[in-house]
Amino acid sequence: MSPHPDEPTELKVALAGFGAIGGALARRLDRGIAGLRLAAISARNLEKARDRADDGLAHPLPVLPPEALPDHADVVVECAPATAFRTIAEPALRVGRILMPVSVGALLEHADLIELARTNGARIVVPTGALLGLDAVRAAAEGEIHSVRMITRKPPGGLAGAPHLERHGIRLEGLSEPLKVFEGTAREGARGFPANVNVAAALSLAGIGPDRTRLEIWADPGVTRNTHRIVVEADSARFEMQIENVPSEENPRTGKITALSVIAALRGLVASLKIGS
Q: Any idea which residues carry the catalytic annotation?
């Protein structure tokens, strides 16, 4: 008997990146999620990724260069360093796949990919990530948003190696009190902290854009969680939101909730009931 035409089909998922986020996603998909199947993975070091997959996953799957992933999957999840973003995104969008980027800040630097997706019938689906309230921001954007401000506080180790810090000679070792290391637009923040503030890029895309969304970043030795506070002024509402994310053990620059957010977004692609806009 053939499937009912209205029944959701199984989506094949490829992971471009096999680090802290990609590894967590692979393990969860490998255990099984209705309507989703892990079809392939990619990483900078393919041989190392094959060894990790063999050791950590119950089901064998191909480990491929990123440009080969669209041949094996309906959805390509980008969870790699931002420098690899275009190498992963462009092949998927050229053949009409769904791209789910975690490095949302890189999308601001490669905005032409949005038109590429439109031209080829592809979709770019940005997960909420380590943020909250994007539904409210998107709803407010249907009216008029006057301002959006985001204040991020992270343990100093979670900001280590950021290009903005290196460029300005900002040292965080031995910090004993909070230090504001950046204030500017979401676009500028995404350039200066590509591994740290993808949340600001997502917020800007949901609301008034990367050049009007204001961002502060603090290195704070008094916090143990990655904290984001958002203040929105709009003609429909004024709201403030704060989230404190537990950092990943593998990579303190990202929170544990980021991988869970991607899983939730993937479920939303196949769910019969989807909550939220």
A: 228
Strand segments, DSSP code E, in 136-260 are 145-154, 179-185, 213-219, 226-234, 238-245
Strands (E), 189-268: 213-219, 226-234, 238-245
Which of 3.40.50.720, 3.40.190.10, 3.40.50.1370, 1.10.3720.10 would CATH assign to domain 11-129+257-270? 3.40.50.720
Model confidence over 201-215: pLDDT tens digits?
999 999 999 999 999
What is the helix (H) or strand (E) element at residue 112, kind and residue range? helix 112-119
Residue 212, by phi and psi: left (phi above 0), alpha (psi -120 to 50) or beta?
alpha
- 272: helix, strand or coil: coil
The reported pTM is 0.90
State pLDDT tens for residues 12-34.
999 999 999 999 999 999 999 99
- Both tokens assigned to 203: 């917020």
